Amino acid sequence: MIITTTYHIEGKTISHYEGIVFGEVITGINVFKDLGAGIRNIVGGRSKSYEDELMVAREKALEEMEVRAKERGANAVVGTKMDYEVLGADNGMLMVTCSGTAVRLSDEPAYFG
């Protein structure tokens, strides 16, 4: 399935709009990752564990959005947007959401004239 941030796909025509679809993931950050990130915050540098957690959460949110698009009969999602939030009393939860418009593409060439 094509998932893109653009509103059209080169060489394809959108034949049907199937509605807005979402993918959401909320994940906890464990104490060992927090400890490592705290040290990085003091001495500088990147936090590989947080970066990995963010990457996994983003991929899961996109996968969830793709499943929901397929359930509507779509074969692509256009106009995809991502959002990230930190939640919880101690900011120990990471929320990643994505949304886009599920569409059905036809093989007819697109015309932008």
Spans where pLDDT lies below 50 across 5 or more residues: none
The largest sheet has its strands arranged as 1-3-4-2
User: What distance separates the N and C termini?
Assistant: 27 Å
Label the structural class.
alpha+beta
Count of discrete structural domains: 1
At the third CATH level, what is the topology name? Translation Initiation Factor IF3
Q: Any guess at the CATH architecture?
A: 2-Layer Sandwich
* Outline: elongated
Overall pLDDT metric: 83
Question: Biggest sheet, in brief?
Answer: 4 strands, mixed
* CATH homologous superfamily annotation: Hypothetical protein apc22750. Chain B
> What fraction, in percent, of the residue positions are helical?
25-40%
Number of distinct beta strands: 4
Element pattern in H and E: EEHHEE
What share of residues are in beta strands?
Answer: 35-45%
Description of the molecule:
By secondary structure, the chain is of the alpha+beta class. The chain has a single domain (2-106), classed as Hypothetical protein apc22750. Chain B (Translation Initiation Factor IF3). It is 33% helix and 39% strand. The protein has two helices and four strands, in the order E-E-H-H-E-E. The chain has helices at residues 31-43, 48-71; strands spanning 2-3, 13-28, 76-87, 93-106. A four-stranded mixed beta sheet has the order 1-3-4-2. Strand 3 and strand 4 (93-106) form a beta hairpin. The radius of gyration is 18 Å and the shape is elongated. The two termini are 27 Å apart. The model has no long low-confidence stretch (mean pLDDT 83). Belongs to the UPF0145 family. This is UPF0145 protein Tpal_1299. It comes from Trichococcus palustris.
